[in-house]
Amino acid sequence: MNQLIHCAARLLDKKQKAVGGGVLISNNRVLTCAHVVNTALDLDANNTLMPNGSILVDFPLLAQGGRHYSRVVFFHFDPANQAEDVAVLELQTKPKGCTPATFCSDVDLYGFKFEAYGYADGYETGAWSEGKLGRIDALGLLQLTNTEITGYAVEPGFSGTPVWVGQLSAVAGIVVSSDKDPNTRVSFLIPTAKLASRYPDLSGLVRSKSHSRLIEEELASVAGVGKHQIRISEAAHGKFRWRGGIAPVQFGLLWKGRTDFLIAYEPAQTRCRDVSDALLRAAIHGSGGTLFVAEPDRWKERSTEIVNKCLGTNWDRSSPSLAAATARTWGLQPLTEYEDAEYLVEKEYSPTELSSILNTVMDLVLLERLSEFASEMLVDGKSGELAMTIESELATEMWVVWQEWEATLRDQPELLSHFFRVMMSKADVKQLQFAQARVGLHTLVPCLLRSVIFALAIRVCLPWDFRPVMDERHANIVARHGYAHLCGLQLIEAVMIVQKVQSLMWETDYVILPHFTDPGEDIPSLSKSFMNGESKFSRLDKPTAGSPLFLTGDGAFLRAILAGKHDLQAHLQGVVAKWITRQEKEIDQAVEGAAHAS
Length: 598
Fold this sequence. Notes:
This is ABC-three component systems C-terminal domain-containing protein. By secondary structure, the protein is α+β, with helices and mostly antiparallel strands. It has helices spanning 2-5, 34-40, 192-198, 211-223, 246-251, 271-284, 302-310, 322-329, 342-347, 351-379, 386-411, 416-424, 429-439, 444-461, 472-479, 482-507, 523-531, 556-562, 568-597, and strands at residues 8-12, 18-24, 29-32, 55-58, 67-77, 85-91, 113-118, 127-136, 142-145, 162-165, 170-178, 186-191, 236-237, 240-241, 253-254, 261-263, 291-293, 510-512, 549-551. The two termini are 53 Å apart.
C-alpha cells in the first residue's frame, strides 16, 4: 500500500479533469493506457498514431508529488484488441517523494486480493476499489472482480491505474476496461508480462523469480544461513491445487530440518487448509522456539458476537463432542435428534446466524475428524507418516464435502440439520476415545490435539488469520489433564488468552503470547481466574526471543524484514524488553494499589 501511494499517477485533460490513471515506472516516466492518452489530448478514440501535445500529470495520494507536464514517448494501440493499449509519458520534471513501482509477473494471481485507486465519473479526486483477481482470458487480460456489494467498483475512470497486490507487495498490471454491464462488477487489467512484451524497459522493474523463491532467499539472508537451508513446502489436495507463489505462502514457510521460524505470510482462505495446516504444524513442531508471523485482514465486529455465542452460559464443558456442545450453546437440539428442518424454522434464525452456526460447527466437526484420524495413525505406529497422509486423504475428503455443502447451504439453510447428521456420522468420538485408551493420555495424541484445538479455537472466535502456534511445553501441560479438559475447555482458554493480549495488539505490531509458568499448574483453575479477571502476571513467563510472536498492522515491517532492512533478532529483543517493562510497571502499580488499600 505504501508503495502504491508513491507511484500512483493521475492524468488530466485540457480542462484539468481527471481522465484516468497511470503508474510511475522510472524517475520521470509514467505507464498508462493509450486510450487514456487519446482522451486527455481530445483525440479521436481510435487514433493509433503517436500523439503530440502536453498532458498534465499529478500524484493525488502524495501531497508533495506536485503537477508535471509530460509528453508521449511510447504509444502502442489497437482499438480492436484491449490487450494492445499501452502508452508511456515522460515528465518534464521529476516528482518529489515518488518511487517507481515494483511489478510481479511470474506468479499465478488467481484469488489474490487487489486494490486500485481510480477516478470514476463524479470522483475525480479518486476512490479506492477492492476485490479479487481472476484468470487470464483469451486476449491475455486478467479479470478483476469486486466481490463486495458495497464499495466502489472498477469502472471507467480507472483505466491506466495500477492494480496493487498486497500479498506480493507489487503491481500486477494496469486497468484497461470494465464490463459494459455495471452490475457484474467485473473489469480487466493488462498484466505485467503483456505490458513488458510491448514496452521492454519495464522488465527492469519486474521480479524475475517466483515469489516463493524470493522469500526463501530473503529469509535465508535475514537468518544468516545458506539458501539451501530454507525450502517452501509445496502441496496439492486432490482436485484442488494451491497455485503459484501463494501456495507455499498460504501453507507456511517451513525450515528444512529445523523449526526456529514458522511464518504464515498470507493466511489460508478455507477451513480445510487451515485445519490440516494446524495439524501439520503440531506434528513437525520440535522443542525449539517458534516465531509466528501473520498479516491479519481487517478485524470484524462479528468476531465478538461469535465469542459471546460460543461462550454462552449454557456451554457444556463435559460434552464428549465439541460440535454437540457448540450446538447446544446455540440453542439447537442434539444433532442426532434432527428429523427435519422444522426446529430451525421455529427458531427463526437469520441467514447470518445460520451462516455463523454452520461455520462454527463445521470447524469443530473437522477438528473431531482430524483428531480421530490422528489417533488412528498413532495407534498404528505411523506418527512419522501423519504430516504426509493428512494432506492426501483427510484434506481431500473434507475439502470436497465442504465445497458441496457450502454451495448448497448458501441458498438453502433449511438443509442445515441434514448437513449436521451427515457430518457427524464421520466424526465418531467413540473411536477417538478408544484409540486414546490404547495409547494413553500422556502420548503425542493430546499434544497434537492441544495444538490443533488452540489454533482452531482462536480462529473460530476471532478473525481467520489470528492463529497462534503453541510450543511443545505448553502442549505437554494440557496433555497432563487428558482429553476431558480438551473437549470443553480449550475454546474458553483460547479466548481468555486472546483477551489478555488483545489490548497490546491495538498498540503495537507485535504481540507475544505468554506461557504458563508451572507445568503442574491447574489449567481449569487458571482459566477460571482469567475469566474472573483475577489473573496475575506473576503466573506468566516473561517472554524470550523464542516465544511465539504475532506481527499485525499493514505488514510494512514484515516486508522490511524480508528485504533484509531490519535485524529481526535485535528488534525482537527490543520488543521483548519493552513488553517486560510494561508488565513490571503494571505489577508495581497493582502492588502499590494493594498496599494503599490495606
